[in-house]
C-alpha cells in the first residue's frame, strides 16, 4: 500500500487574496466555488484554499503556533524575495536574517500562513 499527496488545504478568511497569492507564485489555474478555490499546478499537488470565516492567522514566531507550513526552494533568492512581496506576502524576519543551515527566508501568505524559501 502507498499514499500519494493529492492536495494541500489552506484555511483563509479571504479566498481571493490567498488563492491569488499562491497563483502568482506558482502559476497554474484556479477553479473557484463559493467555499473553495482549487489551484492546479503542473507537477504539484493541488492547493485548495478553503473559506474559513473565523480564521485567525498564526503569530509565528513568538505567538500562536503555526499549524503547517510550506518549504519552497529557488535558484534565485533575491528574485524570489521580490516575487513573494509583490504577490502580497510579507517577511516574518528581516531580509538579512537568513535561518541556517539551509539559508531559509521566512514569510507569511496574505492569510498569515508561514512558509520558507531556501536556496535550491
TrEMBL record:
<protein>
    <submittedName>
        <fullName>VOC family protein</fullName>
    </submittedName>
</protein>
<dbReference type="InterPro" id="IPR041581">
    <property type="entry name" value="Glyoxalase_6"/>
</dbReference>
<dbReference type="InterPro" id="IPR029068">
    <property type="entry name" value="Glyas_Bleomycin-R_OHBP_Dase"/>
</dbReference>
<dbReference type="Pfam" id="PF18029">
    <property type="entry name" value="Glyoxalase_6"/>
</dbReference>
Amino acid at each position: 500500500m502507498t499514499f500519494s499527496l493529492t492536495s494541500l488545504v489552506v484555511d483563509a478568511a479571504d479566498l481571493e487574496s490567498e488563492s491569488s497569492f499562491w497563483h502568482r507564485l506558482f502559476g497554474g489555474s484556479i477553479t473557484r466555488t463559493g467555499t473553495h478555490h482549487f489551484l492546479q499546478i503542473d507537477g504539484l499537488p493541488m492547493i485548495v484554499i478553503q473559506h474559513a470565516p473565523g480564521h485567525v492567522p498564526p503569530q509565528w514566531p513568538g505567538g500562536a503556533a503555526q499549524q503547517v507550513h510550506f518549504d519552497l526552494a529557488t535558484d534565485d533568492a533575491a528574485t524570489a524575495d521580490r516575487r513573494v512581496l509583490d504577490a502580497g506576502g510579507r517577511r516574518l524576519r528581516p531580509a538579512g536574517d537568513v535561518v541556517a543551515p539551509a539559508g531559509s527566508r521566512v514569510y507569511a501568505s496574505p492569510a498569515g500562513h508561514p512558509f520558507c524559501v531556501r536556496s535550491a
